[in-house]
Amino acid sequence: MNYTKQEQLYEGKAKKVFATESPDYVIVSYKDDATALNGLKRGTIAGKGEVNNRVSNILFAYLEKNGIPTHFEKELSPRETLVKRVSIVPVEVVVRNVAAGSLAKRLGMEEGTVLKKTVLEFYYKDDALGDPLINCSHIYAMDLATKQEMDRISEIALKVNELLGQYFARAGVRLIDYKLEFGRFNGQIVLADEISPDTCRFWDDKTGEKLDKDRFRRDMGGEAEAYSELMRRVLVQEESK
Ligand code: UDP
Fold first, then answer.
1. What count of Cα atoms within 13 Å lies in the side-chain half-sphere of residue 144?
2. Which atom of ligand 1 is nearest the CA belonging to 103?
3. Is the separation of the CB atoms in 85 and 190 below 8 Å?
4. CB 86 within 8 A of CB 106
5. Which secondary structure element, helix H or strand E, spans residue 96, and what is its range?
6. What residue's CA is closest to ligand 1, atom 13?
7. How far apart are CA 157 and CA 141, in angstroms?
8. Which of 11, 136, 140, 171 lies in the 20 to 30 Å Cα band around 226?
9. Residue of 109, 113, 177 best suited for mutating to test ligand 1, as the one with most atoms within 8 Å of CB
10. Interatomic CA distance for residues 17 and 10, integer angstroms
11. How many CB atoms sit inside 10 A of residue 37's CB?
């Protein structure tokens, strides 16, 4: 497969998407632009696009090897990747192992409290509404996905959590929580979008240092260094295989 970039189809907050010669594939290009608070806070994180592209591709290849269907096909350059052209299910799936962010706030839990059981949450993917929290009955009522699809999405999300938990434990990183997106490709549900420091909370398991976008969201500074440290951990993992 030697597809090349054709017309731009879409520009999002952190990525651009281009058509290819094939209707079944698109090329994503990762940007350094960062947004938070539903677009209210804007900035750039130097080198973020390259980190997210590399890290996400390594993780998708690892998941694929372990039986998870994904959209990943081939890394084309430091910022660009060929992926299957899926139709995105408009539901963001958040997987949580430790209370943080909006969950800690909503339920009055201290950030860092280990959850007795993995929490799965669903958010309606709609910027104008600020991605509200929903449950499966909303999803079926609004026809966002079928029961069969949501069962499959939940099953994949929990399997991904096991696999990523093992992966990051070896890298000396605690996987606190993260957001997944799924798409439909040839009638099947596949894992899509990205898994990166933009979409996950990663804490160093010894120092508790944040190696993710919370540094930007919370004006902590050191975000470029945190992203490259997270990538370094992932690359060390890959070399030791
Ligand atoms: N997340 C994301 N995109 C979103 C919302 C959340 O990637 O639009 C990720 C976020 O990085 C974190 C997890 O999902 O790892 C849970 O986020 P939370 O609901 O706590 O919201 P936040 O505190 O980030 O606003």
1. 22
2. 20
3. no
4. no
5. strand 91-98
6. 178
7. 22
8. 11
9. 177
10. 5
11. 9
Q: Report the nearest atom of ligand 1 relative to the CA of 217.
A: 24
Assigned token pair, 92: 């963001």
State pTM to two decimals.
0.97
- Smallest CA-to-CA distance from 37 within 179, 218, 227, 209 is with 218
At 57, is the secondary structure helix, strand, or coil? Answer: helix
Question: Residue 24 is encoded by which pair of tokens?
Answer: 């079944």
Residues with CB under 6 A from ligand 1: 94, 100-103, 131, 177-179, 199-201, 213
Q: Is the pLDDT of residue 76 over 90?
A: yes
- pLDDT tens for each residue of 211-238: 999 999 999 999 999 999 999 999 999 9
**Over 90: is that where the pLDDT of 13 sits?**
yes
Entry field: residues in the chain: 241
